[in-house]
Amino acid sequence: MEMKEYAAEKIRNIALTGHGSSGKTSMAAAFLFQAGVTTRLTKVDKGNTVTDFDPDEIARKISIQSAVCHLDWKNHKINVVDCPGYTNFLWDTRASLRAVDAGVILVCAVAGVEVGTEKVWAMMDELNLPRLIVINKVERENADFDRTLEAIHQFFGRKAVPVQLPIGQEKDFSGVIDLISKKAYLFSKDESGQMKEDNIPAELESEVEKKYEELMEMVAESDEELMEKYFEQGELSQEDLIRGLRQSVLAGDIVPVFIASGLLNMGIQPLLDGIANFLPSPLERDSIPIVEGQLSPAADGPFAALVFKTISDPYTGRISIMRVFSGEIKGDAVVYNSTKEVEEKLNGFFFLQGKDQVSTAKAIVGDIVATAKLKSTLTGDTLCSKGANIQFPPIKFPEPSISFAIQPKTRADEDRISQAVHRVTEEDPTIRIERDPETNELIISGNGQLHVEIITERLKKRYNVNVDLKPPKIPYKETIKSKSDVQGKYKKQTGGRGQYGDVKIKMEPLPRGKDFEFEDKIFGGAIPKNYIPSIEKGIQEARKKGVLAGYPVVDFKVTLYDGSYHEVDSSDIAFKIASSMAFKKGMKEAKPTILEPIMNVEVYTPEANMGDVMGALNSRRGKVLGMEQKGNMQVIRAQVPMAEMLDFEPTLTSITGGRGSFLMEFSHYEEVPQQLQSKIIDEAIREGRVKPEEE
Known about the structure:
Elements: E1 11-18, H1 24-34, H2 55-60, E2 67-73, E3 76-82, H3 90-97, E4 102-108, H4 115-127, E5 131-136, H5 145-156, E6 160-162, E7 164-167, E8 175-178, E9 183-187, E10 195-198, H6 205-221, H7 224-233, H8 238-251, E11 255-259, H9 268-278, E12 288-290, E13 293-295, E14 304-313, E15 317-326, E16 328-330, E17 334-337, E18 342-345, E19 349-353, E20 356-360, E21 362-364, E22 368-372, E23 382-384, E24 402-408, H10 411-427, E25 432-435, E26 442-446, H11 449-463, E27 467-470, E28 477-480, E29 484-492, E30 499-509, E31 516-520, H12 532-542, E32 556-564, H13 572-589, E33 592-605, H14 610-619, E34 623-630, E35 633-641, H15 648-656, E36 661-671, H16 674-687
Helix pairs in contact: 3-4, 6-7, 10-11, 12-13
């Protein structure tokens, strides 16, 4: 099925954003129904919406990933990206915002401005995107338009200006008053979305007049010519008001506030009108930053597109979803991936309607389009005309904040996991699955416990890989705190040729981070030179397993200063065993201790929660190093043992109501306090890494 073609001027690319459960998917469903794409109003509760099609989304009734759909509204093509709102999945929203020209932010009329609202607003500020706000769910119990508008002003300032007022609230919500035309519209009660013009209720006339004046003033302030007209005539014509409002929205000076109920399909028509009338076409974007300079969107410019999402489909393979920022391209062309510096042959284009595909022969500037089975292209890559030398900056993804060990349940799961992991990480660039070289565990890291749980469910449902989640092992190390001088002698006579090796070594601590040094101080041939490498190798192998809890030993020096050998019985293996015996004895005499990894932690928290967050860090043996203000958040820098950070995410979420976040990276190793070492040793004995007598 081929689609109708649109000029770039008639395309609108929007992201539906907001906090989780603010009604984004229901709003997308209402858009599609109102435009005649669907024949009935689909519902999240029934699991039949176009944009929540993943089995996990249907089961949990939340959006886990961004989904694309499109509709025709009064000869405009509106491409809608329905974005997740929960913090664990906001990385996908961030990537999707790179593909659109404007944002539609939903705010629940009951809950008001929430953490997800703040986060998407900040992302749009960063990308300089025009936006409008929809106060949604006005029909719900405890909905309050005035309270919600006040919260919007408190968080985002007075540039958020209502262009509508509600007629009634909660179960009495029955229509809206359009402040631009000063007309009232009543909604039908049957979910058809039909509206009829009516008189403004007498009790709302003074409020309408007041809000109309505020709107006119805001529009006039943003344009000198309109300001003069306003002063001369005392008001603006409807034509001037619409023109001035559009200019102000595109400039980011005004954010219009609409009212709707996506679930009941109320107020959708004027909202779609607002999207078509006030939000920019792809050609009205400012120049788009590229790695070397700026790119002006143009229909006749060189082809350039950003791949902002990858879907790994078990049947179709890899689907790359891209936004075309310049030029046009046919679906069978050869393009250049300037990120990877390779050519790619396109395999045809299609527009996405949720999971359904609508084929198209070409893609033009402004299109959000998909193609399948590209060989090298991944999320964040740039595709362009050969020789165009265009590359978009990479998409910034958050560092993982929580890790678990994953244990395949059977040998078959273990065999399948490698390919499945490759597919999952192609689709979700924020997930890391890698083997820890020190603990030999397979570690999965993500943006929160829910994120990791969903990925493991995906491994099971899509790729038939069953795994158990466990807290990861801490990569402890062992070292020594004093010197020792010991002998290791290995002598074995079993008929025929025996084994003989004898070494004397000194051990001493090295500064933290120096790992290991070996010095040969043998004089006079006490041990022949050809055995020295075997002695060092014996120590290197023995240090993989310390005497306290079986962890690798670091930051020590071994000096080989004496020993003896046998003309017949000495061998490489005998000296290797002798040096291993000496190492174990020397370590026990040199005050062994356990080291733990210390992490650099940056915690972002609202100022009101700062004291509680610092208390939580202190209770986890953290050392606070400093604080600074970033935007409306406080950033606390601290160093905290890794062992204490494994369950920090739910604690921070609880303290800050979901507004806090943190970054963590390895800093250095420090000695574990003595009272905690016995617990680590007991655990090692239970796991069989060391025997009780080795303690």
